[in-house]
């Protein structure tokens, strides 16, 4: 029984960002936000979401200690990809408005919260941005803004799947129990954003629409997500502006919100949702339950109040 269980505002306002889950935390790297400076070279920012306290924090800038070490830290960018290998996050691709696209592979050591510059592959890949990769044991899917390619590492089988859900772009993809879930996206032919959820079964080679309970995200594209156990953490993205004149020339707005989709909510979670939904008295509940209820209903405050977006 899929259910949207958490909705919070006030996180990092980002589109085209990249994130990985490590333990009970989500590490989000860079991304685009209208109104921010993407011409001046500066370090990529790192935001961390704690799925226990349901709070965002921003890591302080890395002390490089010299120009040579500064190259080990990726510059602020959007449209990149991040993947976790053991306790190391590999960051690849992306671009900013000065340097353009980047083909340097960077590593972020979670245990030390530091970056290292690993290798440049000018002979293997052209500079890429707005790309992603999702895989299960029997399915591997990846794409870039300009071309499609897949690479398999220690997988017994790799199958390329052409996704054709109304020609969606910038949608969310995540694997769970051997199936691929796709959320939202944008159809340029219809000029329409989506908020529906579909799953693909690679064995039956079939698609099925999924309708979770609870209130989910509004239609959007360029959002980010991570899988933690039986839960998807989804945050950011861009959508049509609900009020005329509040967006940019494309009438779009960036999001600083976060949603959690639980594939198997337990009784405790369902009870907490009922307390919130019906505004039930909480004074007689245990302290830890009241703390969790407060965390589920208290927004973060690290984003600045802007409404326009990058198309």
Give a quick precis of the structure.
The protein is mainly beta.
Description:
This protein has helices at 67-70, 267-277, 287-297; strands spanning 3-8, 18-22, 25-29, 46-50, 55-58, 78-85, 88-96, 100-101, 104-109, 114-120, 132-136, 139-143, 172-176, 179-187, 192-201, 206-210, 224-228, 231-235, 238-240, 252-254, 258-262. The strands form six sheets. Strands 6, 7, 8, 9 and 10 form a five-stranded antiparallel β-sheet that branches. Strands 1-21-18-17 form a four-stranded antiparallel β-sheet. The chain has a four-stranded antiparallel β-sheet with strand order 2-3-4-5, with no helix packed on it. It has a single domain, classed as Tachylectin-2, Chain A, CATH 2.115.10. It has three helices and 21 strands. The two termini are 34 Å apart. The chain is mainly beta and 311 residues long.
